[in-house]
Every structure is written in structure tokens, then in C-alpha cells.
Amino acid sequence: MTVGAVDTAVFDVDGTLVDTNYQHALAWYRAFRRFGIGLPVWRLHRAIGMGGDQLVAAVAGDDVEAEHGDDLRAAWSEEYAPMLHEVQAFDGVRDLLTDVAKRGLTIVLASSGAPDHVESYLDLFDGRSLAAAWLTSKDVDRTKPQPDLLQRAVERVGGSAAVLVGDSVWDLVAADHAGIPGYGLRTGGFSPDELRGAGAREVFESIRDLHDALDRTLLRGAARRDGES
């Protein structure tokens, strides 16, 4: 696929910039247990990256969503709250975002997470000074893997061509639906094969590895050669 000059870098937050995926999986496990629903944590982990509006039906079925969906999301929020203070930004996040911005790309953060959680995460890497905008689950009716959040993110900053960086297959599925190329990070616990299978152009082990490789990605900014695919 040939991609035009990229002017917007869309970054997922949970699992990509901050280390949260396993806390989320455990919180969902505990929330489902409240309703007598036992789901293995590994299966819940495979759904992390979806918004809560999508996750319940995906892992437990439409009937559970219809009967308990809102209550399960409230229980998840209660279970996750005590773990929020444990969350840390991944090593090198601020350096990566600073470099991408210096290369002339507009940074926008697009998270399926709860607004109060995302606000807390921004404090961990001074995100408000680095991103032109950030969006959360409250900004769309449907979160990832639907494309709405990514489309709205690009529109919010007036972008014409974007690239996504995410950690989950659902980030990359959403990007594919939105027609946005994406790169995968293993920071969320998904395998390279899973991420590539979902559409990742390339997969990196860490934020630092992606930063070191910027010049061969669509995040290279003005240095990118015309016509590169």
C-alpha cells in the first residue's frame, strides 16, 4: 500500500504508553466473578484494547451484555480503581513523543479508556504538553475495534493522513477499518503474529525500539522519502 505524506500520529494510551493491560484483565475478571461468571484471565486479556461497551458482549455474549452490561462496567471501574496508582508510563514515552512532534507530526491520543483514567495517565508522561488533543470513550458512541475513535481523533486535529501506534489487535483492527496504517508494540502482551495478523506494518518490542527505528517508519516526518510504501 502506498501511503501519502503523514501529518498526524495517533497513539493509543492503555498498554501502549502506560502499562495497564494486566490490571485491566484482572479487574474484569473480578467484575465478572461478582455476577457468578467465571472467565479465564487469558481470555479477558485477549479482549483488552476494546472499550467496555464492546468487551462484555465479546467475551460473555449478547445476553450477558443485555442483562448485566452496565453493572459489569461499574463493577470493573470499582475493581480497577485501587490499582490505578500502580500504573506507570513505559520507559521512553516522553522522548518518543517529543521526537515525533519535532519531526512535524501532530500528536493525538486516542483511548477507549475512561476519561478520568486517561487524565491520570497524562500526568505520568506530561501528555498535555506533548499532544495536540486526546480523546476517550466519552467522545464516541462506539469504541475500538470500531473505527469511530480514530476517525474522530484525526478530525479533531484537522489531519489529512495519519498513522497509528497501538499495542492490541483491536487498535490495529480499528485502524484498518479507518484506513489508517498502524504499527504494533508488544507492550500490551500480544504476540508479533497476532499484531501483524491484525494489520501491523511492523511490530516493536518496546517504546525505545520504536524510537530507534523511527527513520524507517511513517513516523519519520519530513525526512520520509516521497513515494515510500
Task: Please render the helix and strand layout as text.
Blueprint: E1 8-11, H1 21-34, H2 41-47, H3 52-60, H4 62-80, H5 93-102, E2 106-110, H6 115-125, H7 127-130, E3 133-135, H8 148-156, E4 162-166, H9 169-178, E5 182-185, H10 192-197, E6 200-204, H11 207-212
Parallel strand pairs: 1-2, 1-4, 2-3, 4-5, 5-6
Any descriptors?
229 residues, alpha/beta, 2 domains, 6-stranded parallel sheet, globular, disordered C terminus
Entry summary:
The protein is an alpha/beta fold.
Structure, described:
The chain has 229 residues and is α/β, with parallel strands linked by helices. Helix content is 46%, strand content 11%. It has helices at residues 21-34, 41-47, 52-60, 62-80, 93-102, 115-125, 127-130, 148-156, 169-178, 192-197, 207-212, and strands spanning 8-11, 106-110, 133-135, 162-166, 182-185, 200-204. Strands 3-2-1-4-5-6 form a 6-stranded parallel β-sheet, with helices on both faces. The radius of gyration is 17 Å and the shape is globular. The termini are close together.
User: Overall 3D geometry?
Assistant: globular
Rg, please? 17 Å
List the secondary-structure elements in sequence, H or E. EHHHHHEHHEHEHEHEH
The CATH topology label of the largest domain is Rossmann fold
**Which band does the percent of strand residues land in?**
5-15%
* Spatial strand sequence of the major β-sheet: 3-2-1-4-5-6
Write the CATH homologous superfamily of the largest domain.
Answer: HAD superfamily/HAD-like
Number of domains: 2
**Pairing-aware structural class of the strands and helices?**
alpha/beta
Main sheet properties:
6 strands, parallel
CATH top level label of the largest domain: Alpha Beta
